[in-house]
Amino acid sequence: MRQSAAFTGKPTARRRTPRLIGLALILLTLALALPAGASGFVSTGGGSQSTRTSGATAPLNAVAFANATRGWAVGDDGTILATADGGATWSRQTPPGVGGIYPGSGRRGTLVTISGAGFGATRAGGALQFGGKPFTTYKSWSDERITCRVPRTAERGVVEVTVATALGTSNAVDFRVKRSGR
């Protein structure tokens, strides 16, 4: 006759580690999901805790880590925060937004400057699009300004210009590609 083991209610050593990790993730999620300006306690290991303020102006809804140091938190109103130090500090991530393009029209090959915000300090996989077609040759790229030449393949007429980054695609601004000629 086979006997079953009785449940004692005591966690085994094998079960304790996943529970502690799960508890730490729950505490971190709760700390980050605080309303604007609120604060809470976060475990810092060894049984101690520290207070963290969310720093966001909207409630945060979720947090995810790729590894022990790199993570992201997302919330209402498009809020995206990132950390590279395990959550000790967080920085707001801004999706790209185009404010304008100068000049507003020109022939293929014309040097143009796209101004805005959230383009990223370096291109790092970002792309400028003229009429929905990715363009990959740039004179300069910064978080607030991109300088390039109108692509030789750009369609004539009014085309939409956008900037795409890992955080999304910007609003579109119109640029008029003039007929090539002398």
In brief, what are we looking at here?
It contains 1 helix and 16 strands.
Report on the structure:
- The protein has one helix at 13-32, and strands at residues 39-45, 48-53, 60-65, 71-75, 80-83, 91-92, 97-102, 105-106, 111-117, 127-130, 133-135, 140-141, 145-149, 157-165, 168-169, 173-177.
- The chain is mainly beta and 182 residues long.
- The protein folds into 2 domains: 16-47 and 56-92, no CATH class; 97-177, Immunoglobulin-like.
- The chain is elongated, with a radius of gyration of 25 Å.
- The termini are far apart.
- Residues 1-17 and 33-43 have low confidence and may be disordered.
Helices and strands in order, then pairings?
Elements: H1 13-32, E1 39-45, E2 48-53, E3 60-65, E4 71-75, E5 80-83, E6 91-92, E7 97-102, E8 105-106, E9 111-117, E10 127-130, E11 133-135, E12 140-141, E13 145-149, E14 157-165, E15 168-169, E16 173-177
